[in-house]
Amino acid sequence: MKHLSIMLFSLAVLLFLQAAAGATEIEAGPVSGSWEVAGNPYNINGEIEIPVDSTLSVGPGVEIIFQGHYQLVVRGLLEANGSVEDPILFDAADSETGWRGIRFLNAQDSSHLAHCTIQHGRATGSDATDPDGWGGGILIDASNPLLTSCLIQNNWAQYFSGGICITNLSNPTLTDCMISNNISAGDGGGAGVRDDSAPLFSDCTIQNNNGGLGAGIIFWSAQGQLLNCNIFNNVSTTAGGGLYIDNSSPLLNGCNVVGNSAAPGSNGGGFWIGSNAAPLISDCYILSNQAGANGGAMRICQSSDPVVSDCIIRYNEALHGAGVSVSYCPRPLVTGCLINDNLAGGAGGGVYIGEAAGIELSFCEITSNTAQLSGGGIECNTGTNPWVLNCTVEANIAVDGSGGGINVHSAQAWIDNTIITHNLGDGIFYDGVGGSILEHCDLFGNDSLNFSGILPTGFGDLVSTNENGDSCDVYLNIFMNPLFENPGGGNYQLLEASPCIDAGDPDQPADPDGTVSDIGCYYYHQPEAVADRSLSLPPAIRLLQNFPNPFNPSTQINFTLVRSCDIRLSVYDVQGREVAQPAQGTFTAGSHSVMFDGSSLSSGVYFYRLQSGGQLLSGKMMLLR
Fold this sequence. Notes:
By secondary structure, the chain is mostly beta strands. Among the domains are: 1-120, no CATH class; 541-623, Sandwich (Immunoglobulin-like). 3% of the residues lie in helices and 41% in strands. It contains one helix and 72 strands. The strands form ten sheets. It has a 17-stranded parallel sheet, with no helix packed on it. The chain starts with a helix and ends with a strand.
């Protein structure tokens, strides 16, 4: 028995020594060459740097563990190419102490990180101007690396950008990356872009981050593009739950900005746009965001000049301007948007226009919004001069105040070619101050009055007829049923017999079919049409690329629903055979994630299809074992 005990003890010591021998100790100083999985883990015992004209290649499955608050400085090239099966890990031995992250400092073009996890970085500096306090996980300074399918999570920054900071004329590309659960004690919880940088974010997800200004991502004197990105569930303590855009002009296309929030008393649950910013925001879903003060979906202020086009702005909440809130701006443009089902605890369920603001709202459907006070659809406050052109304002509610559709209070509003119907509370309220103009509009079926307040002389008096021969007032307003195709089902297209056809302002641009402008946001296409630019109803569902892709064995499939509906999510092989059904049933409006486990399947290409009613969307994914 004694000999057996000695043998077992000797074996344990041998195994321990073998395990210890497997670790690679890296001391402070320059690094280069190749790090492969056989050397795992790579224990970093001091500050390390890839010098100019040097390359460090890191293979799949390598684990790089920083034993103290040290950093990896990249001045040469970092090639860290993991795989779905064997990602590369950059981490700290002590998650509380953390490490100082990867710092690209005037690095050579172009380092590449693929399938890397960067976590538990902590950036600390002397003050807010010290870059050492920026970018908890990654700092990109005057550099242009490429990041593909990377996970940047659980990092922290003292002053700016908990996950990744991009600064000083940097133009990196991030594709299919996830920036999640990062924190900034200052601004930019997930990502921060500043100082004339212009990154490209493509098919990335920025979610569950926390910070001051711009909990998801902040643009500060910068440019850049976000294409088909998801910005979900970020929480700001100051302003801009999803995005904060200041003195910047990024482009966003095809993005989902969903479930973000700004704290009580704060502005811009989805977006905060200000200080001469001029972003272009198109074809985005901006859903279920919340602000404690103004702008549940979007706060536009401080002389900014954004263009927001063809977006769906729905289910957002705020005190004022649950959909869009505008102040101190000359003339931002919101066009071709659906602004529906938003809820304001104060004024402006759909849109709030206040504090010396102008805005052009054109070809927008503003329906089923609610304000506890005034302006269920649109609130035009003191000293403002908005333009409301070719809009449909339908079925909005002002619970305790005036203007179920539109409330005009001491404002100089120009409302033209607009349908105002079936709003709860009067269709439009005007207090007679400000010299507003309401012409070529259709008011019908509002509860309890189509209009109230102190209206211009002759408004509502049917003393004339328009070019269609319909009775109208001296401002060529009509008061007839606009005859929508299916308003109960949310379809506000005009029927052939609608009195709104060719009843609009002849001085406005003609409809695409060459005829006089129709009233409302959807024109009726007539036989003599020469083109067709009608605002079609947006799809009820949006299907996103799965993440990660390729995957092994599980991947996440994300989709967004504009309204509650029945869906069926199926997976097929290349022969068209259904091999799995990850989800089926009734799902609520908003963003949803479904995990698909392919452990029972062989490697190869698969297709996933999401069906709702007559709409069918599909995507392609690859399982690699």
